[in-house]
Amino acid sequence: MGIHFIYITTGSMDEAKGIGRALVSERLAACVNIIEPITAIYWWEGEIQEDKEVVLIAKTQEALVPDLVEKVTALHSDDCPCVVGLPVAGGHRPFLDWISAETGRGNRNC
C-alpha cells in the first residue's frame, strides 16, 4: 500500500484549517501540515495574477486519494483548486506505517 502526500492550496488560514480538520477527523489523512504565507504567481483568465496563499500537505494512503480529493473540492472555495497527489518513494518505515494505521475505512468515524 503506497503513501501519498497531497499538496493543496487555499486562500486563507481559516479555510486551510477547516479542510485540514475535516480530512483528519474523517481519517482521510493521518496528518495535515499548514504553511503560510506563500506567494503564488500564476496565469488565470488570460492574466498573470499574484496572491498570498496557504499550503496544506496531507499525508494519506494511495487508496484514499480519490475520496480525499473529492472532500477537498467539496469544501474548497475555488472553482479550480490545486489538489495534487505526490507518491512517497521511501522514508522512515515506522512513520509511513503510522500514516497507514491512522487512515482508512476501518478507522473512519463516519
* Beta-strand share of residues: 35-45%
CATH topology: Alpha-Beta Plaits
| Main pleated sheet | 4 strands, antiparallel
Structural class: alpha+beta
Q: Number of domains in the coordinates?
A: 1
CATH class membership:
Alpha Beta
What's the tally of helices? 3
Shape: elongated
Give the mean pLDDT. 94
List SSEs in N-to-C order. Answer: EHEEHEH
Unreliable spans: none
> What gap, in angstroms, lies between the N and C termini?
22 Å
Number of strands: 4
- Helix share, percent: 25-40%
CATH architecture: 2-Layer Sandwich
Using the CA coordinates, give the radius of gyration: 14 Å
Please state how the strands of the largest beta sheet are arranged side by side.
Answer: 2-3-1-4
Detailed description of the structure:
This protein has 110 residues and is an alpha+beta fold. It has a single domain (3-107), classed as Alpha-Beta Plaits (2-Layer Sandwich). The protein has three helices and four strands. Helix 1 (13-25) runs antiparallel to helix 2. The protein is elongated and about 45 Å long.
Detail the topology: elements first, then pairings.
Elements (H helix, E strand, L loop, with lengths): L2 E8 L2 H13 L5 E14 L2 E15 L3 H11 L7 E5 L5 H10 L8
Antiparallel strand pairs: 1-3, 1-4, 2-3
